[in-house]
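SMI1/KNR4 family protein (Kangiella aquimarina), 205 aa
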Amino acid sequence: MISELKSLIEEHFGVFKCVEIGNENNCKEVSFKHSVGLLKDCSDLPKVGDIPDFYHAFGSLTLYHDEVSGDSAVYIANPKQWPELHNYFSDWVGDLDEDEKEELVPEWVDTCIVIGEIPATGNYLLVPTTGEKTGHVYLFEHDGFEFIELASNIEAYIHRMLNLDSHMLTQIASHMRFIEKDNYNQWWIKELRDNKGNLVKTNDD
C-alpha cells in the first residue's frame, strides 16, 4: 500500500561509507535520508498504473539525499515538471532517423510520461501509457541508448530502491560524488549501512 510505503520512506535513513577517489586512505561517512515533496493539485493526473495513488501521497520524492552536497540517487518529479523532463529526454531521441528509431526506440516512447531522472546523468525514468507495459517503470540510459525495465509500477520500483543490492548500489555510486561547496574532492561509496540493519557493499573490485 502507498500509505505504508510513505512510512517506510520517512523512517529510513543511514550512511554511505566512502573513500576519496584517487586516495583510498582518506575515508568519510555521508548521511542519507529520503525527501518527500509537498502535495500538489492531483486532479489532472493520468489514470496510468499506480500514478494517481502515488501522487496522492507524494508531491515528489528524492531518494538517498545528502544535504551537504545536494547529491541524490533518484528524483521522482512533481507532475508539473514532467514536460520539462520530457523535453530533456526528447533531445536524446530527436536526432534519430526513422530506421534508428525503429531499431532502438520502443513503440510506447511517443506517448510515455517522463516521471523523473537520475540526477546529473542525462538518464530518465519513463512510464509507458500504452501497450502491455502500461504503468511499468523504465530507465532510459543514454550511454548505450538502452530502455531498461525496472519494475511493474512506481511502488514496486521504490520498494526495490529501498532494498538495494550490490549491483544497484554500484550503479548509484557511479554518479554520486558528494562534492562540497569549498572542497572539490570526489568520493566513491564502498558500503551502505542503514537503520534497518542492512549492510550493502559496492562491486568495485
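Helices lie at 2-11, 51-57, 82-93, 98-104, 154-162, 166-173. The mean pLDDT is 94. ok done for today
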